[in-house]
Amino acid sequence: MRVRRAGDRAVLVETEAPGRFDAAVRAAGLDGVVDVVPGERTVLVTTSGDAAALADALARLEPVARGDEGTGVVEIPVVYDGDDLADVADLAGLSVEEVIARHAGAEYTVAYLGFSPGFGYLTGLPEELHVPRRDTPRTSVPAGSVAVAGPYTAVYPSPSPGGWRLLGRSALTLWDVTREPPSLLRPGMRVRFVREAP
């Protein structure tokens, strides 16, 4: 673990267990902590107080097991009819039905949010479905698209460009500015995909 200052009001922690360290920071109740932002291999902690003192306190924290944040499992309904479903099957050496069964049969954890508001990077994707991004990204991916790339799966919360491979689509709203919080997904949540008929 490496702890370093990130300006006058923030500390960046590099760690192999960002979700567990995020949970440790939240559980510690450190004075002056304004926000905790987990990333793929980092946790950014902002403070209203002294960043040097915060850095010292963070260096003494031990990562803890991450809970489900009281949410149980968020179920995301999916119609598996994505444009890249057959390509993913070919890359994985599986049938389309096997891809669907393995994607829908796993339980995922929201590692962190990024790319666009409400876009959750979900870990737990079966290893055989770890496929590369498309060589040429699409200029527009519809909101609700369920996709995979590398070790992650995700649902596009809004229309955007994207290079992930599309497995299907969900009608669930992941980002809604009238909801509190606006993002349906938060780091640490558990997620399952539930197959729906077209």
Estimate nothing, just give the exact number of structural domains.
Answer: 2
As a whole number of angstroms, the C-alpha radius of gyration is 18 Å
Number of alpha- plus pi-helical segments = 4
Tell me the name of the CATH homologous superfamily of the largest domain. Answer: Cyclophilin-like
The biggest sheet amounts to: 4 strands, antiparallel
Q: How widely separated are the two ends?
A: 46 Å
What's the CATH architecture name of the largest domain?
Beta Barrel
How much of the sequence lies in strands comes to: 25-35%
CATH topology of the largest domain: Cyclophilin
> In CATH, what is the class of the largest domain?
Mainly Beta
Characterize the overall form. elongated
Helix content: 10-25%
Please trace the helix and strand order, writing H or E for each element. EEHEEHEHHEEEEEEEE
Number of strands: 13
What does this structure look like?
- The structure is a single chain.
- The chain has 4 helices and 13 strands.
- It is elongated, with a radius of gyration of 18 Å.
- The protein has helices at residues 18-28, 51-59, 85-92, 96-105; strands at 2-5, 10-14, 33-38, 42-47, 73-78, 108-113, 120-123, 138-141, 145-149, 152-155, 160-162, 165-169, 190-195.
- It has a 4-stranded antiparallel β-sheet with strand order 1-2-4-3, covered by helices on one side.
- With 198 residues, it is of the alpha+beta class.
- It folds into 2 domains: 2-59, Gyrase A, domain 2 (2-Layer Sandwich), CATH 3.30.1360; 73-195, Cyclophilin (Beta Barrel), CATH 2.40.100.
